[in-house]
């Protein structure tokens, strides 16, 4: 099965590369480049040394935005799902803000955080956008996870005198864990998508900045090279989150390693 999976996956990528090559045959690097031009652009960017710096900048921003969203979103979602009065107080606000695209916040983020020096100017603006993009999937997943807990488990725990924080630690969190982990994985994917858009305006580093700068200089081979790097890193991040999800569930007896 593994050999078949690898073979079919390789075949699919090969077909895509062939179609890409045929569709861009004869193009220069100022047009939509073919696979070979994109690969050469990737080698050139790596040789210049800027590629690694931009990768680190993008991963740095995603890591901070995602981490802040997780430490805020998980407790907030659990509270909204568990407490009726907190749900009535905060859920309308969450549902009102959730449909707003994080990119729509970009002008406000640049205005508020653009002049703040951290790693570089406007770092906090990008991190704020990633925080917003990650927050709502995490809050929604945590809220739904509490609502999906079977009532009989809660009643059984209460019959044994388990209430308050012990109930949260021993019953609610283990039962909610699968959906929370799924929400974290989805949020990571969204964060990685948003960082590219956030870096196209207001920052001077990152893969999004590389794409925008290459467009201004008509280096479309650099653009596609950056897109390839974004794809690979996105796959690695999703694989890492999937591994964390499986390991965490296996430790609680909910999945096999």
How would you describe this protein?
This protein has 257 residues and is mostly helical. It has one domain (35-252): Orthogonal Bundle (MetI-like fold). 78% of the residues lie in helices and 0% in strands. The protein is built from ten helices and no strands. It has helices at residues 2-23, 35-48, 50-82, 84-97, 106-113, 123-147, 151-159, 165-198, 207-216, 220-251. Helix 2 (35-48) packs across helix 10 (220-251) and helix 3 runs parallel beside helix 6. The chain crosses the membrane at residues 6-25, 37-56, 62-85, 97-119, 125-149, 170-198, 218-237.
CATH topology descriptor: MetI-like fold
Structural class: mainly alpha
Low-confidence stretches at least 5 residues in length (pLDDT < 50)?
none
- Main sheet attributes: strand count, strand direction, barrel closure: none
Within CATH, the superfamily carries the name: MetI-like
Helix content: over 70%
Order of helices and strands: HHHHHHHHHH
Which shape, going by the Cα principal axes? globular
Mean pLDDT: 85
* Helical segment count: 10
Q: Roughly how many Å is the radius of gyration?
A: 22 Å
Strand content: under 5%
Name the CATH class.
Mainly Alpha
Q: Terminal Cα separation, in Å?
A: 18 Å
Tally of strands: 0
**Number of folding domains?**
1
Pfam family, one: BPD_transp_1
Family: Belongs to the binding-protein-dependent transport system permease family.
Domain ABC transmembrane type-1: 55-241
Main location: membrane
How would you sum up this structure in a few lines?
Keywords: Cell membrane, Membrane, Transmembrane, Transmembrane helix, Transport. With 257 residues, the chain is mostly helical. The protein is 78% helix and 0% strand.
């Amino acid at each position: 099965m593994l050999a078949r999976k690898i073979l079919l996956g390789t075949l699919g990528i090969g077909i895509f590369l062939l179609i890409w090559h045929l569709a861009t045959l004869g193009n220069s690097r100022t047009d939509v480049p073919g696979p070979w031009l994109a690969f050469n652009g990737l080698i050139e960017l790596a040789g210049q040394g800027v590629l690694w710096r931009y990768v680190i900048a993008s991963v740095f921003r995603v890591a901070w935005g995602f981490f802040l969203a997780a430490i805020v979103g998980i407790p907030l979602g659990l509270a909204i799902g568990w407490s009726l009065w907190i749900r009535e107080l905060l859920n309308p606000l969450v549902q009102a803000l959730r449909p707003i695209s994080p990119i729509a916040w970009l002008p406000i983020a640049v205005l508020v955080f653009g002049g703040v020096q951290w790693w570089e100017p406007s770092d906090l603006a990008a991190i704020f956008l990633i925080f917003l993009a990650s927050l709502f999937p995490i809050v929604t997943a945590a809220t739904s996870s509490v609502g999906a807990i079977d009532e009989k488990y809660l009643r059984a725990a209460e019959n044994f005198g388990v209430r308050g924080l012990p109930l949260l630690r021993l019953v609610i969190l283990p039962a909610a864990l699968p959906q929370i982990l799924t929400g974290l994985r989805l949020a990571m994917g969204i964060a990685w998508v948003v960082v590219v858009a956030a870096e196209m305006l207001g920052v001077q580093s990152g893969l999004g900045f590389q794409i925008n700068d290459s467009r201004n200089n008509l280096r479309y081979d650099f653009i596609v090279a950056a897109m390839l790097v974004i794809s690979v890193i996105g796959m690695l991040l999703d694989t890492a989150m999937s591994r964390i999800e499986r390991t965490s569930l296996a430790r609680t007896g909910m999945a096999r390693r």
